[in-house]
Amino acid sequence: GENVEQHPSTLSVQEGDSAVIKCTYSDSASNYFPWYKQELGKRPQLIIDIRSNVGEKKDQRIAVTLNKTAKHFSLHITETQPEDSAVYFCAASKGGSYIPTFGRGTSLIVHP
Amino acid sequence: GAVVSQHPSWVICKSGTSVKIECRSLDFQATTMFWYRQFPKQSLMLMATSNEGSKATYEQGVEKDKFLINHASLTLSTLTVTSAHPEDSSFYICSANLIGGNTEAFFGQGTRLTVV
User: Fold this and answer.
1) CA distances from B26 to A10, A99, B7, B30, B91 (A)
2) Min Cα separation A81/chain B (Å)
3) For an interface test with A, which of B103, B111, B112, B113 has the most A Cβ atoms less than 10 Å from its Cβ?
4) What is the CA B97 to chain-centroid distance, rounded?
5) B33: which chain A residues are within 8 Å (Cβ-Cβ)?
6) Count of other CB atoms within 10 angstroms of residue A7
7) Which of A57, A78, B63, B88 has the highest count of CB atoms within 10 angstroms of its CB?
8) Could you read off the pLDDT tens digit of each residue along chain B, which spans 116 residues?
9) pLDDT of residue B109
10) Per residue, what are the HEC states of chain B?
11) Are B105 and B44 in contact (CB under 8 A)?
12) DSSP run (H or E) holding A49
């Protein structure tokens, strides 16, 4: 089955800095890669996603890049703000089962 | 976006009793729903895939007789934790995808179960 590795487990930055979270996946058939943000005690919510036919996608301060050859994808957050503090999960899934495999999560702390 | 509602949001029960958690897709139909368990500061661990009108598919190591899943309609799946014990205390969360889509998961708000 699919295996998703996510790093780092904890990331601490100063407000205004950039944050990068990286994930690797094992199943070359995976073709959908979402990123979720989960605030303490709340449900995960999608912040950005990318499909395998695209190398990069950007939405304001958030961007995701995908390298299919190397089987890794990354989340980039620029100009971080304290409200960006949360746990971020990457995931990978493929057509057919649609079952997402989640990374272990990254706790992002943005210091004001 | 699509909305998934999960109830209750928290529950405290005595050891040995059973607890039912409901997961409803409010504005879309979901042939498949997923049930996860999440320990503090850890990732989402898939417990089972709930399929409308058929038996759930459980992940390895998850006891199907302990975690009963019923998906009787296209908008409702239930998870019953039977004979609950303190080690079953956890955050349980469901999700659903739009029919036919390898797309984002819409999550319920989660249920904090505490067994005393």
Assistant:
1) 35, 21, 13, 10, 21
2) 21
3) B103
4) 14
5) none
6) 13
7) B88
8) 789 999 999 999 999 999 999 999 998 888 889 999 998 878 899 999 998 888 899 999 999 999 999 988 889 999 999 999 999 999 999 999 877 667 888 999 999 999 99
9) 95
10) CCCEEEECCEEEECCCCCEEEEEEECCCCCCEEEEEEECCCCCEEEEEEEECCCCCEECCCCCCCCEEEEEEECCEEEEEECCCCHHHCEEEEEEECCCCCCCCCEECCCEEEEEC
11) no
12) strand A45-51
Six token digits for residue A34: 């979402």
The whole-angstrom distance between B62's CA and the closest CA on chain A is 17
Element (H or E) spanning B9, and its range?
A: none
DSSP string, chain A: ---EEEE-SEEEEETT--EEEEEEES-TT--EEEEEEE-TTS--EEEEEEETT-SEEEETTEEEEEETTTTEEEEEE-S--GGG-EEEEEEEB-TTT---EE---EEEEEE-
Summarize pLDDT for A47-83 with one digit per residue, the tens.
999 998 889 999 999 999 999 999 999 999 999 999 9
Are the beta carbons of A49 and B104 separated by less than 8 Å? yes
Q: End-to-end alpha-carbon separation of chain B, Å?
A: 37
